[in-house]
Amino acid sequence: MPIRSFSRQWSRHLYLRIWLAVVVGVALLMLLVGWAWRATVEHHAAPPAPREWVVLNANGDVLASTTRAGPGAPLVFDVPLPDGQTLPLQVQRSGERSAERPHAPAAHGMPGMGLGPNGRLPPHWRQDMPWWAKPSGFFWMLGLIGLAVALGLYPVVRRLTQRLEGLQRGVQRWGEGDLSVRVTVQGDDEVADLSERFNAAAERIEGLMASQKSLLANASHELRSPLARIRMGLELMNGPADSDAWARSRAEILRNMAELDQLIDEILLASRLNAKEADIGTVEAVDLVGLCAEECARVSARLDVPEGLAQLEVPGVAKLLRRMVRNLLENARRYGASSQAALQGNGIVLCLKPQGGRVHIEVGDHGPGVPPAYRDRIFEPFFRLPGTSERVGGVGLGLSLVKSIAERHGGWVRCADRAGGGACFEVSLPQSKTANT
Hints:
Blueprint: H1 2-12, H2 14-44, E1 52-56, E2 62-67, E3 75-80, E4 86-91, H3 123-128, H4 135-175, H5 190-237, H6 243-274, E5 284-287, H7 288-299, E6 302-304, E7 313-316, H8 318-335, H9 340-343, E8 349-355, E9 358-364, H10 389-392, H11 398-408, E10 412-417, E11 423-430
Parallel strand pairs: 6-8
Antiparallel strand pairs: 1-2, 3-4, 5-7, 8-9, 9-11, 10-11
Helix pairs in contact: 2-4, 4-5, 5-6, 6-11, 7-8, 8-11
């Protein structure tokens, strides 16, 4: 288990992998250099001074002396006798080999080798030395080992940093204007995490740019319609004097100017809501019961709240929440106007339901409803159901603003069928912890 945990940490952190690669390379270099150094020192080390063995008589006089020829060799003495003869004497420890091994005379600094008359090694012995044991050969060996370690580490470090170069190329292309660029995610370390975050940011920015382009294109198209109607009204006012025609033209111009002003306001609000860093206002506790009661009274809609519920607070920006509720009621009044009940305001019902720490706002009407294929698209900017723009008007930003406002307040919105016919829009918002009921 500790090995698996260490392996996971090693694979997730790029700096650990580079550090371990360098450490292992340096350790190998040190081991090889130390081995070569030790071999060279042992090869050039002076042998220990030989011991001298003597044979003494009873009076302490030295009769003979010798040195050991080599490890395990017997001690050989030539002891002189009184009659002038020499007595050869061999002494060997019990357990040691008795066979003598010939050894070359030892030279100072090189075991088994003798120095020449000039104090240097004989030429034939210098030629027999390995190249790495020579003084210049040691440095050549050190350089070759360093070169081998560098060549061995290069593909390792190159593989680790190659993904960084791929990420660099992707960022460069993205910075040059190609917003569709995505980098390949490999591994599970910091580079992979950075690649994932770059892809997410690039996708987010590409979506925002596409949304802004779509908003600009649709806004330009929608702004032309009221401007054209205003121009037509002004041309009619330049015609023959007619008080009724003048009144109608003036009313049309004022209506179109109000529509133009509302369109500009909604476009600006949509742009601010799309920008996550934009300041949308002061967040405070907002009483939804009082806010919804005021908006329902404005369009003659019915407010349905649980019995005994006098106050229901949610954290948010009051003007944005009011715009959200107003857009839902206006949408229900506009698209549910085909029924007689909706024309009288009785077909629009707003329900408030606290449930599980959240507040659910439901706005239903008795209109034709929304086909299932369009229940997600109706929250897109400037989208309107086919054939409804000419009949009921509007620019298609109301429900888009409802979705943006709900999401900025930590909520969501969806569309469903209403029991008995019509559409039902449900918004869920987090309830304030200090809400009173």
